[in-house]
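Researcher: Going back to the complex we discussed earlier. I've cleaned up the inputs and rechecked each line, so this should be the final set. Can you rerun the prediction on the complete assembly and write out the structure?
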Amino acid sequence: MVFFCSMQKTMMITFRSVLLFSTILRVLLILYGDWQDSHMEVRYTDVDYLVFSDAAALMSSGDSPFKRTTYRYSPLLAFLLIPNAVLHRSWGKFLFSASEGHNFLWWSSQWQCLYFADLLVGYLIRTILKLRGVPDNVCIYSVIAWLFNPFTFTIGTRGNCEPIVCAVILWIITCIMRGKVYQAAIWYGFIVHFRIYPIIYALPLVLVLDPRYLQSGQKAVLMKWSSRQVELPQSSDATEPRTFCAVLVRMLSGTRILFGLISGGIFLGCTGLFYYLYGMEFLHEALLYHLTRADPRHNFSIYFYHIYLNYERELSIMEKLVSFLPQFAVQLVLIFCFALDLPFCFLAQTVAFVAFNKVITAQYFVWFFCLLPVVMPWSKMKLKWQGLSCMLCWMGTQLHWLLWGYLLEFKGKNVFLQLWIGSLLFLAANTFVLVAIIRHHRYCPIFQPLNFVSKGRLKVNR
Amino acid sequence: MAKKFVLLMLLSRFTICIGAQSSSSSLNQDADSKFNKQSASSSLCFEKYITQPYFRQYESLIDSNFQEYLRHNLPLNSEKAFPRLLDLGRHLIGEGSHRRLSSSVTFSIQPDLVSKLSSRLCEVIIIERLPSGVFADPFELEHIVQQGVFKDVSVLGDINLELPSFRSNQSIVEIHLDMDLNKSSGQEIVQDFRIELPLHARYPPLGESGYSEVIFGVPDLLLRCLSLELSAAAQSCLLTRIPSDVDLALNPVVWLIPAGIKAHAKLVSLVTFASALLSAISIIIVSLKQSRPVSGERLKQT
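Model: Rerun complete. Updated structure for the full complex:
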């Protein structure tokens, strides 16, 4: 008992050490970022941070945040940042990062926000893994994979708001796992309003609320990490009626319908409120722009050069459909193959969504980096050499693209063709990595079937 | 790059040439009336930005319309009593899509005008009509104002930062600089200053050569002076252009911007769609092989 307590204490200290070191790292990076902004041509601070800071200042003076050019977020984000312009030090602890061009006190309060969002993601990763009975040492490594990932701490310390989105997505998974379905629905409605891309999780969220696994009044049991290699008894599915009506009844269960209604209601409510306040400008900038975005400027997407070369003419319906088809098909297949293993489904969908998107910027990578740690304990992939080859392939093709991008943007060389080939190679790398992740994953639904006898069932909480 | 055409010897900033002081009040009145006749209408003089009324009248910047606007509101004159542009140097600094347009200006103000302006707050207004292939970032310029480099700056016209040039219109950058004219009256003043305007390239129209040329014109220079009266009603405003005596035969400033090549279009579209399809098929095949159906068949040992 004493040994177990001291082991626990060691584990806690280790987790705390991880948090402490990640904090120190972020502080150093933010100090460095301020120096780079002042002394180098290429700024460290994300332009987006300045955009939504300006929008918050406009909102605080009663103006529309959309008066700030290129502000394409929900007014919620500007609203959350309003106290930054007023309370500075105290509010800074609850929101995210700094920007240059303001006094040091306001700047120093900003980084505390980002640290908090990053920390929250790390904490939620650990929570999800602990709920599924993952051992502490494995949890620590998974948390490290987030807190010390160069992409995540760089993007975060540059003043990007993505860690907040990641935290909410992980919180939704946590709520689902704890049986708090309707709380998850409320957060899901908010986050789809805040950042459109989580709409891709709608179908797997509905599918995971399968009445054969999760029913109100009956406890649902999480599939533990220790059972990932155990063959479970066959479910009673074979004896269940497979008529169309039976399938339809299962699909339209009360839980699923309520989840859809609540999340849809929250989304429409927020959209309606801000439409009332800011009109068509809000709809266009915060919603329609993202749905129809086709940016001809160079980015990681394979479509950028195709869009630029065809920008002067209107693309036909067939051309638009053809470019949408791969994305649509991959999303559908991934959902129907892996929905019950919710964290893995989210991860695979997000990687594919980013890879096939018409625009790809570095901040999008954070969307799947936060999901990777909650899936890692179920992967058979070894660091040597499968893991390393995935990392090197992905980073190598990215660096290759960045080299051509630098020659185009900062040296004025016409390297469009080479840059586009770099995008193709990056898509190939993303495909290679996703295929490797799928092949090495131990499929494990988060819930056990209800007819499976086990202890300690969770109850769906309304 | 622009090449300077020097008319007079350049003097350092705020240098004063000794000249005869105009003492006759009748001469002053004469100069004043001529100045007022040739200056802008008072309403334009009191506008925060001189080019703003243009955009109230017209939707977009068209050179001929703008020239007419200036001619109508700020006619040129040949009176020696008005400021004269002596030298203008222009060149681009930097490489790639983000550069700075440098302008060095030298102009003179004759003694009788100096005496009139010595009791006023004066500023030089530089109106830079940007060609459609480039844009200025208003937020970046606001930052420059906060640093005290310019007194004020505004970007008018098409301020969309993201559209390629064939989907965008031209814009104007109006820069205001404080001019601290020496308070000693009766002496000619030669002023010079240099500004750097950060600019960014838009994606140009497609071409065959792989590059698009963006050519910069000559900026319009104005001098505005407000009296130091405390009450707005008693304030008077003088606004005049700063023309040059002779034709400043500047070499045009040219910015070569990389452009997409039309001949690539079909191949790029074909290979793009084919790559996307191939990647999608790979992912779908692996997913179907590895998955367990959602209907919830038993888990197998992996």
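Model: Worth noting: The first helix of chain A runs from residue 2 to 39.
Researcher: Good, that matches what I expected from the previous run.
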